[in-house]
Amino acid sequence: MTVVIGVGNPDRGDDGVGRVLARRLRALSPSGIEVRECEGEATGLMAAWEGAKEVVIVDACRGAGSPGSIHDFDATEIEGSGSRPLRHGSTHSFGVAAAIGLARALVCLPPHLVLYAIEGRSFGEGAGLSPEAERAVDEVVTLLIRRFPGAEPRPGDNA
Fold first, then answer.
1. Which residues sit opposite 6 in a β-bridge?
2. Does residue 70 surpass a pLDDT of 80?
C-alpha cells in the first residue's frame, strides 16, 4: 500500500500546501494510493503511515529556494531536525524530522519514505496559497500519479 500524507495548516497560506495537495489527489481517486492529512506532529505522522510500505509526505518549506520550487528527499537523507534537508522549513519541519528519527530508532520506519517539500512564499494567517505554491501542488500531483503504477485516476472519476 502507498500512503500519501499531506502535512500543514490550510489556514496559514503556503503552509497548507500538503493538505491542499492531499485534497486534490484524493479528488482524483487514484487507484493504489491512500491519501491522508496530518498537521505535522511527529506521533501523528507515525500513526498516519503505520503499516504502509511506501510513504510520501508533502509539506511546505521556506528558505531553501525560490517560491514554488520542489525539493524531494529520501528518508535516508533525513537524520534529525537539524539535517540538511530540513535545515530550512515550515512550522512542521521539526515534526517531520522527529517522526522520521523516532521511527528509525524504534525500527518502524516504512521501507520507502520520500518527502516532497514545496517552497512557500507566504505563511500569513488566513491567506490562501500563493500562485507559485498552487503551480507546485499541481506539479507534485502529476508527479505522484506518474510515480506509482496503477495510480491513474479511476475511470468515471473527475477532479
1. 37, 58
2. yes
